Amino acid sequence: MDLFDLTITVFQSIRTHKLRTFLTTLGILIGVSSVILLMAIGNGIQNYLVGQFKKLGSDLVFVLPGNLTTASGKISLSSERKIFFAKPLKARYDRILSKSDHVIAASAVGGASAKAKRGSRQYDVEIRGVRAQYFKIRKLDFLFGGPFQKADEQALAKKAILGFNVYKELFGLGADPIKKTILIGAAKFEVVGVADEVGGSMGGPNFDDFVYIPYSTQIKLFPESKVISILIGLDDMDNFDSFKKQASLLLRRQGLTDDDFTILSQKELQSSITDILGILSLALSGIAAISLLVGGIGIMNIMLVSVNERIREIGLRKALGATKKDILIQFLFESSALGLLGGLLGLGLGFLGSLFLNRFIPATIGLQEIGLALGVSFVVGVVFGVAPARKAANLSPIDALRYE
User: Fold this and answer.
1) Where are the domains of the chain?
2) Which among 6, 18, 128, 371 is most buried, taking Cβ atoms within 10 Å?
3) Is residue 296 exposed (0-12), middle (13-18) or buried (19+ Cβ within 10 Å)?
4) pLDDT, tens only, 278-321
5) Buried/exposed 143-157: b ≥16 CB within 10 Å, e otherwise
């Protein structure tokens, strides 16, 4: 039986038993669509993170409170690392670290939350108190105006740079907010700049909800503020290891221990987040693989039923000259076709699901995911079709023809 005849036979079998075929492929459909969705979300988030880190700028180093790393240098949120008991970072550490070799600029970053108002409009914002040097480190594009200056910090000026969402909610798109005032908390601030749209940080704060003000002003008006990080700009990331050793020594001289701070490069931070997402995707993919296993067992059971229903057909084919190999190939072809059909349906469902999810979170499907889905479903069909195919191939033609 050639390939064309095999295809016609399989098509007739599927058309004759539509409901049975659908129920048989349901497990494969669910498993493949789940894997497709998980991989699409994983790829989308990874691409999103890469884009976000590019928007932050290059050659960045973060000094964070608490020891967030394991012995291998990966990020860990284990309480054993005394994160919650670490000594707080102090703003003056940025000036100390700026004296290290290869440092272009350093800025403490203070964090606080408040409500911003303009007239009847209001919006919940994240305040980021920064030094003027911050804007030499961060790649920040401006829709209007620009950064405040060092003199503004020294004068405790009430000047603010708005994130895109803050600007949109308080002024509306198209309006020029420069030199206009808003209330942040109970204090009146002059708007000197509006940052271009950046986006969220997947589980973290949305950069577009930030309002940047001079750090000295933040400390005066929002005394509950804490230093959430120190941002460092290096001349070249090849010098990171050298800087890290020198910076660690300088911070220890300030009375900090290794459990009180973490120094991470932008690349390390991105790699650690990607590893965490990879582990999560792997675990969820293992759960989805159970559906593939169930689907494979379903294919095997239905193929065994099909063999029992077609015993006389098998006997007749053997009597007309069909070999064991011919029968084996026929049933393997049918089982693999069922697996591939489930994979195609699962691929379609996964694609539709990714389009829906893309409204809320990044989800992209590539050729690799498509190939993997179809390949896995085909292999499942072949593997679980072996036992039924061998049973059919080993039937005696005489016994098969006598079968009632």
Assistant:
1) 3-50+273-402, 88-256
2) 128
3) buried
4) 776 676 677 667 777 888 888 888 888 888 877 888 788 778 77
5) ebbebbeeebbeeeb
Three-state SS across 308-358?
HHCHHHHHHHHHCCCCHHHHHHHHHHHHHHHHHHHHHHHHHHHHHHHHHHC
Beta bridge partners of 114: 125
385's tokens:
């079709």
DSSP per-residue string spanning 220-264: HH-TT-EEEEEEEEES-GGGHHHHHHHHHHHHHTTT--TTSEEEE
- Please name the helix (run of DSSP H) or strand (run of DSSP E) that holds residue 385, with its range, or none: helix 367-393
Q: What is the pLDDT of residues 112-159, one digit of tens each?
A: 999 999 999 999 999 999 999 999 888 788 999 999 999 999 999 999
Residues comprising the chain, all counted: 404
User: What are the C-alpha distances in Å from 121 to residues 145, 167, 183, 276?
Assistant: 22, 11, 10, 39
Nearest residue to 248 via CA among 232, 227, 225: 232
CA distance 312 to 401: 5
192: helix, strand or coil? strand
- Please, which residues have CB within 8 angstroms of residue 62's CB and are 6 or more apart in sequence? 229, 230, 231, 232, 262, 263, 264, 265, 266, 269
pTM for this structure?
0.64
